[in-house]
Amino acid sequence: MKKSLLALAIFGAFAGTASAQSSVTIYGIVDTGIAHIDNGGDSVNQVRSGNNNSSRIGFKGVEDLGTGLKAEFVLEQGINTDDGTGDPGFNRLSFVGLNGGFGKVRLGKQNTPIKEALSKIDPFGTGGLVNAITYLGGSANGIAAIPERNPNQIIYITPDFSGFSGEIAYQFGEAAGDNSANRVWGAQLGYANGPLNVQFAYSDGNTTTAAGVDTSDLKIALLGATYDFGAVKLHGAYSQKKLESNNGGADLKVKSGLIGVTVPFGASAIRAEYINNNDDRDDRDNNVLALSYTYSLSKRTTLYATYARVDNDDLSAQGFGTSPAVVPGENTSGLAVGIQHNF
Amino acid sequence: MKKSLLALAIFGAFAGTASAQSSVTIYGIVDTGIAHIDNGGDSVNQVRSGNNNSSRIGFKGVEDLGTGLKAEFVLEQGINTDDGTGDPGFNRLSFVGLNGGFGKVRLGKQNTPIKEALSKIDPFGTGGLVNAITYLGGSANGIAAIPERNPNQIIYITPDFSGFSGEIAYQFGEAAGDNSANRVWGAQLGYANGPLNVQFAYSDGNTTTAAGVDTSDLKIALLGATYDFGAVKLHGAYSQKKLESNNGGADLKVKSGLIGVTVPFGASAIRAEYINNNDDRDDRDNNVLALSYTYSLSKRTTLYATYARVDNDDLSAQGFGTSPAVVPGENTSGLAVGIQHNF
Amino acid sequence: MKKSLLALAIFGAFAGTASAQSSVTIYGIVDTGIAHIDNGGDSVNQVRSGNNNSSRIGFKGVEDLGTGLKAEFVLEQGINTDDGTGDPGFNRLSFVGLNGGFGKVRLGKQNTPIKEALSKIDPFGTGGLVNAITYLGGSANGIAAIPERNPNQIIYITPDFSGFSGEIAYQFGEAAGDNSANRVWGAQLGYANGPLNVQFAYSDGNTTTAAGVDTSDLKIALLGATYDFGAVKLHGAYSQKKLESNNGGADLKVKSGLIGVTVPFGASAIRAEYINNNDDRDDRDNNVLALSYTYSLSKRTTLYATYARVDNDDLSAQGFGTSPAVVPGENTSGLAVGIQHNF
Lengths: 343, 343, 343
Prior knowledge:
mainly beta, homotrimer, Porin, globular, about 55% strand, disordered N terminus
């Protein structure tokens, strides 16, 4: 602070007005558009937040501790920019950590490893009207969706070894008397070399009732890759989500595939994605198709138009948000045009 | 960011401490005072937020996109500085937009056009213990108050044409199956030339029940003007608020007039306002009288003392906040002294 | 703002990116660790926020008004960095004030005088897993804990007179019709001279039911001191908390003593604290023992390990947070290791 104030005195023009702030960067995304949502019943036109990427505001900082060690923190809050509502606190990210030659250790609310892996594969970066974190695995099929951000996690991230990197995550279940109840293990392994990016991730979480009965395990495996030909980038992923019953019930399983393509040209890009969710049970499959055009006005500001549709089997109820309510078995669609501004 | 870091390296004294922040301005108002509130029953002394202007904190930024085009965003949260409570999210303003020679287009939660117009006429700038956005139109008379900030709005603001400017707003009703339900149209037209400022605004909103019945339309028209003689600034406005029944009920109508005066002298100013709300129904009229003295310690910090009273007819229940509860038919008053600090 | 923009134009390298921010400092603490909590029943392992100091984010600023007068504001929100949850608004601090040669006057939500005094005596600075603001006075003994931060306060803080300083606080009860109901008076007097710091504080608060019956007064007196020998700093405090019945019930009284020690060596410090709470009623006493080791990686980043235990009498129920639930009469303990990062 003192150095800064001295500098302010030297460059007098700043003196009255420049910031004494030293260690925090404010950042965020304001993404708002106009959407037409058809969830199988009456459709609706609406102003809608986060059609290309979730709107958010965050505070972060890095402190150099010397000898290669750094401390870092991130506090990030999700916001609905259509109506200004939001959750209190920093519901997206809230962690502190140390990093250095050994890698990174972070503690708090963070992305899951499977989200980290998927965000590198999904043409939509796991954000926006349609994205793989919500739609891969058939979240509306009676099994929990792929966990995106978990609280109470400790995560270790390796440094880069010739293109290889990975992370291990442990989420504390915080159940009194049973430290394995509701805990989630996760891991991610990636390989990036020139045009190729391969990602593998795994998640294994206990589900325990309030009465302390370990009813089931949710196990998710993901393998994905992208290959960038320059003019075209190809995306592909396969995931398996399995809810194993521990009390005699039947196991539930969803196998999902994703193919996608990104075609940049000048300031524009076209992205397309097709997801097939294949539930072991009858009539619960769905297919998702999404197509997006973006035009960047600058590095920070992008116009977009995205169309997506879901073909639901009779008992599948995958739509676009919860308002209007999704009608099971009906096909659903969404169309959004808008602007994403990063700050 | 890179340019900034380069600059930081050049001006070395900054290097260890200066902010890397590039694109966000934090701003706000902390306005807290001590008030005596008499809402017709037992009176109360209290620490009270927002007696001269609503307390708030906001984040905003403008990005120059080149060729005259700019992107902008505002995220603004209201706060109660007396007890530190508030709403999550950015409940005052939350919008993103583009502007240039064509004017401005903004999307999200924003002021209504009628609030924009009124804020230019009201001696109290539609803020504080008494202000025209709350008191004009007799908000406690069984008809909704003049809408101040609406979510899900798209607004187009014209550039200035020789003193003329205006805006058009459309608030999506977001009702499934009926895109006209609960939608609000608004428009504002202003003329500013030297000492004269004339404002006209109109709002037309549907009110639809959950069952989809379009019960009524709320139509508000406002005409106002200020004239600045230098030593004295005069304020006047007339508004008509009409709730038109669409299902056979009687229409409700409130006609309201406002006169005001601002007298600046040195760092001080005296502002006074008289509002008459004339409800078509019996015994629902009220008159509002407000008188304020402000003393500016700087451009950003102001001391204030404000007194206001409302003469309520038998069925009118206009007071100062909701604690203590307003007793219908009783006259109410408020006195507040405090400090407003802008940052 | 204009000056700043001019400066930005002159130092062109900044022009595109540097902040126009003038008057706000963002600050905070992210303190997250891993804890083992035994509240007398089933124990739990958890990621836990605020083990060394409460996690928070704040915005503050000071404006020089000339002639020795300054305006200041603080807005500070508590956060749970383990899971990202928090309260809306600025629930820790939210005040505006003026200061100068006469001292400081502040209005809004602020620390109580007794908290201010105790924070200078407590080896743990009234923050973290165990701290005197929570544990001194036996908060789980059926009497309200020592008030830490009160809303609706006006506080006057004296300047320093040869080492003496003090403050007087008045919290408005804001009860309609009875301005003495629920009001809290507080005062603090301190003397700091070289190695010696002596603190006295007093609090007197009415407790009034919703029906307007003044049921009781909560009176708290605190006397404490620290003496810094350099290699060792000693801490001691005595408090008396008395709930006086105003409707014929019995008075409740808790006498508490605290002794502590701080031993700094290099970047490390060991802190220890013992608290004895002696309730006039039978079987409600408890003793608290806490031991902490900290290692500072920098001025802003500290690693810590803290162990604490409470010996509860049969009807005492003092533990570490509320999850898991505290079992009355059982001894409780907490162990936390983690990192505190200030920004």
